[in-house]
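Collaborator request, handled under Task 6.
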Amino acid sequence: MDGFTRYAIYFTPTGGLASFGAAWLGWDNATGTEVAHPQIDGLPRPVAQITDRPRKYGFHGTIKPPFHLAKDKVATALEAETRALCARLKPVELDGLQLAQLGQFLAVIPDGDTTALARLAATFVEELDHFRAPPSEAELARRRGSQLSPPQEDNLARWGYPYVMDQFRFHLTLSGPMEPADLTATHRALDPYLAPHLTRPYRIDTMSLLGADQAGRFHIIHRYTLAG
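Structure tokens returned to the collaborator:
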């Protein structure tokens, strides 16, 4: 638990989807090891280039974004409170998952209604917020460089991150930003390899607490069952 620079609450898949995602990105956040990239035909660029930006996080869906621990808090208390929170929160069932283009990025996103999932994420953001140290001025400036909307600016000021609460959109990132032609080509090439792992319906019944090492790579500290 100690020695991590930041913490986060992510949904981290298991089974075939997790294995494929770890190989695609080249980093397995469950084992804390590098993984060889798969051979995917038809890609416009090498997998290592496409996945360079999201690699250090491992395959995940953000629930409570990465944060530095507040000075008066300890990691063991964060772990205990996360465990207790998961014990009382209910799983969420999605219609399914699909591969999609989100702006300049490629990601796996949910099908259908995501109201229950957004509510679940908001609960983690709010109830664990007292563990979060305020963002630095440099971090605030970096976030504001993305031309935030007024609601996103409000979230940044209140929760330390723009894309939470009413601005939350669940996704499991698969690429860094790409030009439109490369994005379309990567989508087309990746889809047949990924599709067998996108089961319908898809149940989210665990949450993971992760920590970032000194190199910025995230490791799963513990995966908890949503047992409410």
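The cover message to the collaborator said: "The radius of gyration is 17 Å. The CA atoms of residues 147 and 189 lie 32 Å apart. Please let us know whether this matches your experimental observations."
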